[in-house]
Write a structure and sequence with these properties.
By secondary structure, the protein is an alpha/beta fold. 23% of the residues lie in helices and 27% in strands. It is built from nine helices and 18 strands. The chain has a seven-stranded mixed beta sheet. Strand 11 and strand 12 form a beta hairpin. Helix 8 packs parallel to helix 9. It starts with a strand and ends with a strand. The relative contact order is 0.14.
Length: 305
């Protein structure tokens, strides 16, 4: 299954230095999930030849404008393109009121159902359950209600060793083997042992998204061991006081979280406009966690099996 993250926007607050505000697109095969929606999101989707009609789910981390001001424009364009499929939006309370007001004052009756689900829980909570993956949300430490997201593949089936399967094995017996079960005969004896005819399942992959947040070790249990972690890195460490007062993180703090959580790779983002060049942020992060990388607009990060 394809599991990849497309960077649409990586800046904080305002667009600057040819960088746009936060937005990412996660693809799991035919499923497209948009995470946050800064002002230029629909322009970026068009620029990178992504069909907006394929977006089924939108996750909004919090209601600071640089994370959702592009949403009404995207919804409007979907309407103009005569979308009919429902659009599911998860966010902290307040977003539905904002969007409905904008639609009402323009006398817009959408061509598709718009469904909102509010995030207001504590701890980790599963918010979406699809055939091959789940999405969970967990609280972050920011100036207003803010959530991170964990997208995780479900356990995969055992892999059949086709080279050693008997010619007369039945389809339902193969299904049992793929589910990790031995096939028994009518007397309850093992007819085909799972260990003999299968290989272990491939590991389930995962991606965690931590938008605006102060340094907070309480999230470690939520993101432990993920393959790819996106964690905001608004400042370098010489601005740590500023980071703390605005409930943001430094690159070193993001890398510390990645190291403590034992993740595979760290993706930095939400850069302050004070940084035209991003090298210092990356250098600082790699001093703590070697597998640190910059999120660059237009790049696609594949989460490999």
């Amino acid at each position: 299954m394809i599991f990849q993250v497309k960077i649409l926007g990586n800046n904080s607050a305002v667009p600057a230095h040819d960088r746009n505000q936060t937005s990412q697109l996660v693809q799991l095969d035919s499923q497209f999930i948009l995470i946050d929606c800064g002002e230029a999101t629909q322009i970026q989707l068009s620029r990178f030849d992504i069909r907006i009609g394929r977006i089924k789910t939108i996750l909004i981390s919090h209601l600071h404008g640089d994370h959702y001001f592009g949403l009404i424009g995207l919804i409007s364009t979907m309407h103009l393109f005569q979308r009919t499929a429902p659009l599911q939006i998860f966010s902290p309370p307040g977003l539905e009121e904002i969007i409905r007001l904008q639609l009402n004052v323009s006398s817009t009756e959408l061509s598709f159902p718009l469904r909102f689900s509010q995030l207001f829980h504590e701890g980790m909570n599963q918010i979406l359950d699809e055939n091959d993956f789940t999405i969970s949300a967990f609280p972050l430490r920011h100036g207003i209600s803010c959530y991170g997201f964990l997208i995780k593949e479900k356990p995969k089936p055992w892999r059949i060793r086709k080279d050693c399967l008997p010619d007369d094995i039945l389809i339902q017996e193969i299904v049992k083997l793929k589910n990790g079960r031995d096939v028994l005969d009518d007397d309850g004896n093992v007819k085909y042992a799972c260990s003999e005819f299968t290989l272990s399942p491939k590991p389930s992959r995962s991606f965690a998204y931590c938008s605006d947040t102060a340094f907070d070790t309480s999230i470690l249990s939520y993101i432990q061991g993920v393959d790819l972690l996106y964690h905001e890195a608004t400042f370098t460490s010489d601005m740590q006081d500023r980071a703390e007062s605005t409930f943001h993180s430094t690159a070193a703090q993001a890398a510390t979280i990645a190291s403590m959580a034992g993740v595979g790779k760290l993706l930095l983002g939400h850069y302050s406009t004070r940084y035209k060049e991003l090298g210092p942020l990356l250098e600082e992060a790699r001093g703590v966690f070697a597998e640190s990388y910059l999120s660059i607009e237009g790049e696609t990060i594949a989460i490999k099996e």
